[in-house]
């Protein structure tokens, strides 16, 4: 008989529950180390059919490490699992592990695709750069706010121009300069780190065939292309290109009950950072006026803007962009702006 294993993972300990033939045969705890967990599972379940755990900060490490140990690891959607686990009377790690083992036994779960370590490194690089950019914005706003209190208004500017204007305004303000200049130094240091991460992203985009392919689309830059490739990894991970829009949360939510049938706002599920990048790319495509950006996609988006408004049109173009980019990854063809390009 095969065994089904549920793991409730935390930073320190992992609760383990093993079921066989509709009954629990063992449960316990061990440290949250995949090698130790694999040995524990092998000791009590020599022939596990499924080893199920939820998505979380350790999910990528656990999935790849347990798979390398030869265990049939399955990572399931935490939101879906919690609706089932929340029905238990007592919320404990042991009961959660037991509930996950039951889900593995019944097959009533939603498995998720776990990204490779290479894709996660790219996503971490993009996230780190975005975090540092946010810090530079906060620091510059803090500097402006402090100086405004003393009647020193920094004109709208950024980069070196912002730095020179702050330094000019601080001339003859020695006491205030002792407060502001440390913030300016930190601002400069963070900007330097942002530049380093940006160079790494550009290098990754230049060396990737798929990223160069996606950058043939007007409005798609290095960061969006790299992020898209890291998120999708293999185009075969999706049954068709249209499903990618729903995966990114760019399709409307629907509520139907009896005579009620409503379409709401977009679901906003999935990768929020990539969804934001695609929206930015769509707005750039719709707002550009250069002749080299003319395409059937842009014409369609502008027609939608006339009927639905700019924001809704940009969301629709962002969803269409995801479909086009996925198709390009499957076929290996560059972006074709107009139908005449097929001839």
Automatic annotation (TrEMBL):
Q: InterPro entries recorded for this chain?
A: Transp_IS110-like_N (IPR002525), Transpos_IS110 (IPR047650), Transposase_20 (IPR003346)
Q: Specify the species.
A: Limimaricola variabilis
Residue limits of the Transposase IS116/IS110/IS902 C-terminal domain? 212-290
What name does UniProt use for this protein? Transposase
Q: Which residue intervals define the domain Transposase IS110-like N-terminal in the entry?
A: 5-149
